Amino acid sequence: MDPDEAWARVRSARVARMATVTPSNRPHVIPFVFALFERDPDRVVYWVVDRKPKRSRDLKRIRNLLENPAVEFVVDGYDEDWTRLWWVRCSGTARVVDDARERHEALHALQEKYKQYRDTPEDGPVVAVDIATIDGWAARAPRSPRPSAAPPA
Questions:
Q1: Residue 89 · residue 74 · CB < 8 Å
Q2: Is the peptide bond preceding residue 152 cis, with omega within 30 degrees of 0?
Q3: Are 102 and 133 in contact (CB under 8 A)?
Q4: pLDDT digit string, tens, across residues 43-74
Q5: What is the spatial distance between Cα 25 and Cα 84, in angstroms, rounded to a whole number?
Q6: Residue 101 region, left (φ>0) first, then alpha (ψ -120 to 50), else beta?
Q7: Which of 26, 36, 38, 135 could disulfide-pair with 22, CB 3.0 to 4.6 Å?
Q8: CB-based contacts of 93: which residues, under 8 Å, 6+ apart?
Q9: Could you tell me if 72 and 18 are in contact, meaning their C-beta atoms sit under 8 angstroms apart?
Q10: CA–CA gap between residue 51 and residue 136 (Å, rounded)
Q11: Alpha-carbon gap, residue 90 to 92, rounded angstroms
C-alpha cells in the first residue's frame, strides 16, 4: 500500500486500536476515536479523554504515555471476502497537549469528525500522537483466469 492510500484510510477511519507501553514493558491496547490533523509535512492524531463511561478519568493509557511516549495504532478493514482485507499502522510519540491553541484546534477537528463531540464539548485531557512512520497492507483481488482458447472444431 502506498503512503497516500495509507493516509487516506487513516483519515477516513472512525476507530483505531492504540497500543501504549506499561511500566512493566507490556503492551496495553485500547480502541479509540481520533482526528488526523495534517499540516505539511507533519501529521498528528488527536484524541481526548471524553465523557464516555469509564472506571476513572485517571486512565492507564495516559499514565503509560507519560512514562513511555512510544505509541502505535492500527486502523483496519475486515471483510468475509479476504481479497478486501487491509490494515494501516502508525507509530509515533504521544504527548498531553498543553498549548491552548493546539488544544482548541484538536477539539475542533474531533468535533468536525464526531457528532457526539459537537453535542457535548469535552473538557478532559487532549493527547497528540506525532506520527513518525506509517505502513500498511491491502489484499489484492486475484486476477481473473485467462479464458482458455476455444477447442479446435
A1: yes
A2: no
A3: no
A4: 999 999 876 545 666 789 999 999 999 999 99
A5: 34
A6: alpha
A7: 26
A8: 69, 70, 71, 129, 130, 132
A9: yes
A10: 31
A11: 7
Q: Three cell numbers at 107? A: 477539539
Residues 100, 82: Cα–Cα separation, whole Å: 45
Domains annotated for the chain, with CATH where assigned, are 3-138 (2.30.110.10)
Cell numbers representing residue 118 in the block: 459537537
Residue % of the chain over a pLDDT of 90: 74
Cα–Cα distance between 15 and 32 in angstroms, integer? 6
Residue 85 in this model has a pLDDT that exceeds 50: yes
> DSSP letter string over the chain?
--HHHHHHHHHH-S-EEEEEE-TTS-EEEEEE--EEEEETTEEEEEEE--SS--S-SS-HHHHHHHH--EEEEEEEE--SSGGG-EEEEEEEEEEE---HHHHHHHHHHHHHH-HHHHHS---S-EEEEEEEEEEEEE--PPPPPPPPPPPP-
- Residue showing cell 514493558: 25
